[in-house]
Write a structure and sequence with these properties.
About 80% of the residues lie in helices and about 0% in strands. With about 80 residues, it is mostly helical.
Length: about 80
Amino acid sequence: MEIQNLNMYQRLRDFNVPAVVLDEIFANADDLSTMTESWQSLGKEGLNDDEVAESIAKVIIDELGDEFIQSLPADDTEK
């Protein structure tokens, strides 16, 4: 995994995005490209990497919904 991608992955995990979800995003070239573009766009708006990760994590978690998050094994939803 490239350093930039690893940075995004780790920061999103820090904001409680489940690894199983991130694995799916990072395995799909289109999804990864979309997220990378969003990450860079938010960075150009002046947000630092933690602020970008927090913003993107919120979108991912909101899209997944509480039922999906609660259906994951406990060890995958922990930091």
